[in-house]
Specification:
With about 230 residues, the protein is of the alpha/beta class. The chain has helices at about 50-55, 80-90, 105-110, 120-135, 150-160, 180-195, 205-210; strands at about 5-15, 25-35, 40, 65-70, 70-75, 90-95, 165-170, 200-205, 215-220, 220-230. The longest helix has 16 residues, at about 180-195.
Length: about 230
């Protein structure tokens, strides 16, 4: 059996916001995430988990420490190369969906490949494949405004995976959904993991976190504890 590959590594990561007084939103966090892992990052509002998401996703640079994504030290990359790394290797799923209301499900997902240089027909082809993969192949031509909350979140997941990223960061992916719909979205994320995608779920919901094989709890910008479920392959 081949050894697992580390796709995300953080070592003593600090993020300080320049305010009065300065805010140390992430304070010396270290952990690694392996390929195909399902990890939960849990914490209350103000714990630093959103800042950590931005640092992991290269949307924001750490003030100090090492952030390594699929082998690349992001501190050594220009903004242009960082954008390329993010577009090729990281997919994002947000609580608010961030779909364009006047676009169909197909074109919302196709937008995930907007900066690849592929022509529209090819982007739509890949979008249709991604939508089919998340159980939305029958809703390609429906406007985002005509979809239910669960359907919109599935479209958001399809957009996140259209470029076959190694890592999907899901920020409160069930926050705007009822329990049954939220459960179906979590099941979908587990299916992605079964197919080899690394998924990191950022949540304040302890019940969701407790159902994941590995959880890192943070508070005041620090790791409070790390939990690995019995029998989990980490």
């Amino acid at each position: 059996m081949s050894a697992s590959r580390t796709v995300l590594r953080l070592e003593d990561v600090v993020k300080v916001y320049d305010s009065t007084p300065p805010v140390r939103a992430v304070d010396g966090i270290s952990f690694t995430v392996e390929e195909g892992e399902l990890l939960g990052v849990v914490g209350p509002s103000g714990s630093g988990k959103s800042t950590l998401l931005h640092v992991m996703g290269t949307l924001d640079r750490a003030s100090s420490g090492l952030v390594e994504v699929v082998g690349y030290d992001v501190s050594k990359l220009s903004d242009r190369k960082l954008s390329s790394l993010r577009s090729r290797h990281i997919g994002f799923v947000f609580q608010q969906f961030h779909l364009l209301s006047g676009y169909t499900a197909l074109d919302n997902v196709a937008d995930g490949l907007l900066y690849t240089g592929l022509p529209l027909d090819e982007r739509r082809f890949h979008a249709a494949v991604a939508l089919d993969r998340v159980g939305m192949g029958h809703r390609l031509d429906h406007l985002a405004t005509k979809l239910s909350g669960g359907e919109r979140q599935r479209v958001a997941v399809a957009r996140a995976i259209i470029g076959s990223p190694e890592i999907v960061l899901a920020d409160e992916p069930t926050g705007n959904l009822d329990t049954a719909t939220g459960d179906s979205v979590m099941a979908l994320l587990r299916e992605l993991v079964d197919m080899g995608t690394t998924v990191i779920v950022i949540t304040h919901d302890r019940e969701i976190a407790d159902g994941l094989p590995r959880t890192i709890a943070i508070r005041d910008g620090k790791i409070e504890r790390e939990t690995v479920a019995a029998g989990a392959a980490i």
